[in-house]
Amino acid sequence: MRTLTLALLLGSSALAQLCDQPFSPARPGWEWQYRVTGERSSTYSIRKTSITDSGFIQVRQGPSGKEETTYRCTPEGIAPADFGTQGGGRVEAGAQPISYDLDVVKVTGVAIPDYDRWGIGSSWKLVLEIRGNGQQGPLRFQVSGTLETTYRVVARETITTPAGRFMAYKLQTTFLTRIRASTGPLSIPLNFESQGTSWYAENVGLVKNIQKTRDGETVTELVALRK
């Protein structure tokens, strides 16, 4: 009985750590502050709330308001479970902006893997299957497809941001959008690919990200981590 009790306690302790990964800490009261430079410069902060053994809510506060996304934690790692308040919105597209409402219907893989998978040469993938609808002027359409991100660890190096110097893993990322917009018999593919580089420091998380698209380059840097 004593052995069984010890095993249960150890299992419970391990489960409690699933959301508190070294490269993505989930700690009550912690706040990450970032600045973004590029085509659209801004600042934002990240907090993690409602932390349990199996998930948490990530709260992003920026100039446009508050966005909340639910994350799930498993022995394999951490992955978003939805778009939260980011699933709906509005995009400027000429004279007639596009409004949209999207849901995540299936998640495969993780965004942050278990600690043991971090190492030079390691790779993993996150695939979100999405569905929803949109509207541009009088035109209504359905949206379906996948958002796929591939991560590959290419180095471990020192990186400097306004928050200080960090020893971090350098990740190369490839983001693929494969979606279709359909209305009646008309179906239009909307495929897009972008490349990025990210640096993650142990017991801190993301310290820097460079995202490259057809429109240019956006740099996100950690300014402060308040505990």
Describe this structure in words.
With 227 residues, the protein is mainly beta. Helices cover 7% and strands 65% of the residues.
Structural class, please?
mainly beta
Rg value: 19 Å
Number of helices: 1
The end-to-end distance, rounded to whole angstroms, is: 40 Å
Order of helices and strands: HEEEEEEEEEEEEEE
Percent range of helical residues: under 10%
Strand arrangement, major sheet = 6-7-9-10-11-12-13-14-1-2-3-4-5-8
Low-confidence stretches: 1-16
Q: How would you state the average pLDDT, rounded?
A: 87
Taking the sheet with the most strands, its summary is: 14 strands, antiparallel
Count of individual beta strands: 14
Judging from the principal axes of the Cα atoms, what is the shape?
globular
Strand content: over 45%
Give the key terms:
227 residues; mainly beta; 1 helix
SSE diagram, text form:
Layout lengths: L1 H15 L14 E7 L4 E8 L5 E8 L2 E10 L2 E4 L7 E4 L6 E12 L2 E2 L9 E14 L2 E23 L2 E20 L2 E16 L3 E9 L2 E11 L1
Antiparallel strand pairs: 1-2, 1-14, 2-3, 3-4, 4-5, 5-8, 6-7, 7-9, 9-10, 10-11, 11-12, 12-13, 13-14
